[in-house]
Amino acid sequence: MKYGICLNMAAKDPEKLGISLLPQIAEAGYDYVEMAVMNSMALTREAFRERVAAPIRNSGLPCLRMNSFCGADQSFLGKENQKRALEYTKEALERAVILGARVIVIGSGIARSVGPGQDLAEAEREMTAFFRDAADLAQDAGIELALEGLNRQETNMYCTMDAVMRQVGAVGKENFGALVDYFHFSLGNEDPESLAGIAGQIRHVHIARMIGRVIPVIAAEDRGYVPFLRALRRGGYDRTLSIEANCQGDFGRAAKNGLRVLKEIWENAAV
């Protein structure tokens, strides 16, 4: 298992890049960092190379995973919106390649939401077509895409892992899989045992403490941690696990302790 941490939620800078946190993450002993696509895409190409790519390269920490694919100005529905989203995807993939990312997470709750009066079945077919095209572009770049199950407060599409896996099956591309996020999964009261059967199609995992959505403090704080990871382990999952969480206090201390907790939970989840 490789352990990482997301920069965007813990970032203090206005652009939510979190680059200033890299020395503390490296010192804490993480294997990689996870960057937000939409935040890096807000920069010009030159600024991206200078302010994101160069510091990450110099940190010695690879950016193996990227999340937060796009913002509220995008939509995966409608011919013109999809055309624009695919152009965005091309640029995003170019930047991901520069960073060395291997998986891009598609959360983007607003972009995949269906508006009032829209037919849900038709919307899902449209998104299937978009995801197939995006997966083809990603395949050319050597990158996998992972559709994230979100909670119902963030979107009205793909709010359960069953729904996510139905879309993964409909897309039918080897490099299009799923991400399971402990926070969203737990909010939906989903059964962790269901994860064992789909672990082979899960490309990445996010985790945070449920209360406050912060970096885990101790393994015993949440009885759901171990069953969640145990089911994944039983299904053969052993790829990457990122903390995607807020941090109100000393980030360096919290990140170092959070990594210790993640490793403890993973070991406790051994089957």
In CATH, the topology of the domain at 13-201 is named TIM Barrel
**CATH homologous superfamily descriptor of the domain at 13-201:** Divalent-metal-dependent TIM barrel enzymes
Query: How are strands sequenced across the largest beta sheet?
Result: 1-2-3-4-5-6-7-8
Number of helices: 9
Which percent range fits the helix content? 40-55%
Please state roughly what percent of the residues sit in beta strands, choosing from under 5%, 5-15%, 15-25%, 25-35%, 35-45% or over 45%. 5-15%
Q: What is the ordering of alpha helices and beta strands?
A: EHEHHEHEHEHEHEHEH
Structure description:
- The protein is α/β, with parallel strands linked by helices.
- It has a domain at 13-201: TIM Barrel.
- The protein has nine helices and eight strands.
- The protein has an eight-stranded parallel β-barrel, surrounded by four helices.
- The two termini are 15 Å apart.
- The model has no long low-confidence stretch (mean pLDDT 97).
Structure summarized in a few sentences:
The chain is α/β, with parallel strands linked by helices and 271 residues long.
Break the fold down into its secondary structure elements and pairings.
Blueprint: E1 2-6, H1 22-28, E2 32-36, H2 37-41, H3 45-59, E3 65-67, H4 79-99, E4 103-106, H5 120-140, E5 144-148, H6 161-171, E6 176-181, H7 182-187, E7 202-207, H8 225-234, E8 240-243, H9 251-268
Helix pairs in contact: 1-9, 4-5
Descriptive keywords:
TIM Barrel; 271 residues; eight-stranded parallel barrel; globular; alpha/beta
